[in-house]
Structure formats: structure tokens, C-alpha cells
Specification:
Helix 1 runs antiparallel to helix 2. By secondary structure, the chain is mainly α.
Length: 116
């Protein structure tokens, strides 16, 4: 038979181990949240940088295109053609926003946040 002193000691050790387990789980959760936040912020910043540079390149390419087709159609029509092209791209982006933007974003966030 186990004495009551040993029972109290075992219960005290169990409580101590449970407290240690709780603190370790809390620390793990904090580190996991930090890791996932850093991943999401990294992808967000990288996306912003790529978007800005892509817009700059498109801006200069659009002016180059205008000056390239200007001798054939005139300056006003050249700007109109390039503008129509960008409106078409905008329309395609709006129509295809679910497969091109929403689904990949949801997939990335769910994989990042639900990753065990």
C-alpha cells in the first residue's frame, strides 16, 4: 500500500508536470503564431514589391507601345488602343478573379494557418 505522503508527493509532481506542459504549449503556440505571421507578412511584402515593379514596367512599356504604333495610326489612336488593351486586361481580371486571385489566396492562407 502506498502511504498518503507518497500520494501527496505524486499529486504534487503531477501538478508540477501539468503546469510545465501548459507553459510549454503556451510558448509553442506563441512561436507558431509568430512563424505564421512572418510567413504571411513576407508573402504580402513580396507581392507588393513585385506588383509595384510590374506596374512600373507596364507603365513604360505602354508608352513605348504608343510611340511604336503612333506612325501607323496617329498619337490619339495609339493612346486609345493601349487604353483599350488595359481595359480588356482589367475586365479579364475582374471576370477571372476567383480562379486567379481568390482561390490561390485562400489555398495559401489555409495551408499556412492550418499547417500543424
Amino acid at each position: 500500500m502506498i502511504s498518503s505522503d507518497q500520494n501527496v508527493e505524486n499529486i504534487g509532481q503531477l501538478v508540477s508536470e501539468l503546469r510545465e506542459y501548459y507553459l510549454l504549449q503556451k510558448e509553442y503556440l506563441q512561436l507558431d503564431i509568430i512563424d505564421k505571421t512572418v510567413r504571411i507578412l513576407t508573402v504580402l511584402i513580396l507581392t507588393i514589391v513585385i506588383t509595384v515593379f510590374t506596374l512600373l514596367v507596364l507603365f513604360y512599356l505602354s508608352f513605348a507601345t504608343v510611340h511604336w504604333i503612333e506612325p501607323f495610326v496617329g498619337l490619339g489612336w495609339a493612346y486609345a488602343i493601349v487604353s483599350a488593351f488595359f481595359l480588356l486586361l482589367l475586365l479579364l481580371a475582374v471576370l477571372l478573379r476567383k480562379p486567379l486571385i481568390e482561390r490561390p489566396l485562400v489555398r495559401f492562407l489555409s495551408e499556412t494557418l492550418m499547417n500543424a
